From TrEMBL:
<comment type="similarity">
    <text>Belongs to the transcription factor STAT family.</text>
</comment>
<dbReference type="Pfam" id="PF21354">
    <property type="entry name" value="STAT_linker"/>
</dbReference>
<keyword id="KW-0963">Cytoplasm</keyword>
<dbReference type="GO" id="GO:0003677">
    <property type="term" value="F:DNA binding"/>
</dbReference>
<keyword id="KW-0727">SH2 domain</keyword>
<keyword id="KW-0804">Transcription</keyword>
<dbReference type="GO" id="GO:0051607">
    <property type="term" value="P:defense response to virus"/>
</dbReference>
<dbReference type="GO" id="GO:0005654">
    <property type="term" value="C:nucleoplasm"/>
</dbReference>
<dbReference type="InterPro" id="IPR013799">
    <property type="entry name" value="STAT_TF_prot_interaction"/>
</dbReference>
<dbReference type="InterPro" id="IPR008967">
    <property type="entry name" value="p53-like_TF_DNA-bd_sf"/>
</dbReference>
<dbReference type="InterPro" id="IPR048988">
    <property type="entry name" value="STAT_linker"/>
</dbReference>
<protein>
    <recommendedName>
        <fullName>Signal transducer and activator of transcription</fullName>
    </recommendedName>
</protein>
<keyword id="KW-0013">ADP-ribosylation</keyword>
<dbReference type="InterPro" id="IPR001217">
    <property type="entry name" value="STAT"/>
</dbReference>
<dbReference type="InterPro" id="IPR013801">
    <property type="entry name" value="STAT_TF_DNA-bd"/>
</dbReference>
<dbReference type="InterPro" id="IPR035856">
    <property type="entry name" value="STAT4_SH2"/>
</dbReference>
<keyword id="KW-0832">Ubl conjugation</keyword>
Amino acid sequence: MSQWSQVQQLEIKFLEQVDQFYDDNFPMEIRHLLAQWIESQDWEAASNNEAMAMILLQNLLIQVDEHLDRVSQEKNLLLIHNLKRIRKVLQGKYHGNPMHIAVIISNCLREERRILAAASMPVQGPLEKSLQNSVVSERQRNVEHKVSAIKNSAQMTDQDVKYLEDLQEEFDFRYKTIQSLEQSEKNSILIKQEMLALQAMLNTLDYKRKEVLSKIGRVIHEIDMLMSNMLTEELLDWKRRQQIACIGGPLHGGLDQLQNCFTLLAESLFQVRRQLEKLDELLTRMTYDGDPIPVQRPQLLEKVNFLLYNLFRNSFVVERQPCMPTHPQRPMVLKTLIQFTVKLRLLIKLPELNYQIRVKATIDNNRRFLLCGTHVKAMNMDESANGSLSVEFRHLQPKEMKSSAGSKGNEGPHMVTEELHSISFETQVCLYGLTINLETSSLPVVMISNVSQLPNAWASIIWYNLSTNDPQNLSFFNNPPAAPLSQLLEVLSWQFSSYVGRGLNSEQLNMLAEKLMGQQVSYNDYQLSWAKFCKEHLPGKSFTFWVWLEAILDLIKKHILPLWIDGYVMGFVSKEKERILLKDKTPGTFLLRFSESNLGGITFTWVDQLENGKYVTFHSVEPYNKGRLSALPFADILRDYKVIMADNVPENPLKYLYPDIPKDKAFGKHYSCQPSEVSKPSDGGDKGYVPSVFIPVSKILNDSADPPSPSDLLPMSPSVYAVLREHLSPTVIETAVSCELPHL
């Protein structure tokens, strides 16, 4: 089943997450129509290779053309129209930058895998639960309801102002008519009755003025209360959800709903402002003793302007945090002289502001770094699929300034990965006589000068965004707080689900917890220090916990990704636990686990039984690292692995993947060409040669009557073993093979 088919079968809450990252940059229609072809291409490799990206873009357009030809025969006018429009957009937008669409599609596919992985996990962690509790959902509904009610109240007040204007015009006409009469006519009974009627009308005018001012005051008060309480909380919650999403958590939604609320409130405030201007106009035409307008209007107008200032300032947000396109799963880690992207949005979407707001990007105030590239751009409604008022900077590069002595400061391999910086943005809004200066900043970023610093820099980003919701605490690592281990483990699982498509289950997380805190009864209340996570070496090891875990992520990503996604790599299990799991299993049952002593290593252990049937023994192969896995796929190693017993008869001891899955059933679809599929000698440069196949081989000596101890086995190719047999005696070989090997 294709990945897209699996996505379509998800529950609605997960489908809503999928919907959030498909827009005009990569339309969902194309994802749906070309699902299998898209999934068969290596978009991630193309995101770093311009020539490959250009070929894939051209092939994508060809695929769209072919689909256009098919639907043209079906005379599906709407689909034909949409495909033509999409093709034109794709060609126009990415012809000059094909790697950008490769990055976008790669990110979309990765997010799909992350969501599929999240959907398959039965239990939500504490962080995810806190982000999706019912109180938050109820508040969202209340905010939307109150904003709608405020909008209706402002519109109803418009009608009251119009009625007041009509009443005053009638009063003004009748009053001026009387004033134009001769003095003798003014003493008539009819005129006296008219004067009494005018007095009653004036009383009504006074009452209506007070009523309109009161209604305007209530609308302003309701907006003030909503902004001060629920809307502010809603915005802070969205920013917190964004923080968590940046470190691998659930995709954060709700910004469109916030935009709708901010826009409606801004429209209501401008509507109230126009009502107050109309009252001022009515005041210039007529006033009287005790007139409420000159007393109340200035205060109300001042309050409206104050609320507009605050509303605009809060509406200027970083929609997508700074991120290098080459490392989409590592946002807020920026490498000097490498481009990054960042997107901002004004949540007040008014047509009058389109292309009228120019945003300037800067970095810090310490003058250590500066931003190169286009750092001033206008916000517009044309680049976003939903028509939001936004701007995306795509060509910014951080550059470290030379020190006054002419050296390069800290640039180089020793740049501090706990030093936080901030990308700041400023602009000015001029609208309806108001001038409002706006400022906002990204979440703290870490600068690196070499990709080797990326893992530790990313650890800093994880720890910061897990531990605090303060968006600008640049001195955080002067005294970093401890983090709840239960939440940290949840975030670590997110690293796997977002980066390699499958999160960690409770057993795997328990193993990680034991490595971090030792043998504890429960880790629910355990607080882990930053030093223990990323600074101190693991007991008896030359590396930290985070370096060990990051090496495993890299191993999975580059060498065993399909096996990991299928769930066939147990991975995080101790040597003690694996023996407990295997001891009662059928001989030949094996499991795959990550090495605890070798960085980025994976090994397999199988259970065997001695001939007397009294003892079982366990064999663990020396871990395979990325160097050896680059030469031979891991699935092929499992298929072809041989053991030479004492009688020199090679056999494959791996029969069943734990608990009882036949090996070929588990890994068969990942095998490359079968060993039996040997091609015939060609007539070209290989003429006369017989193709060779690398087969991993180990040797087990079993000439002792005592129960054997677990042994670590070195793989040996047939050619190497043949050479050894040719030049060394069997005794020497057996002595070498049986030598003690490093502990895993």
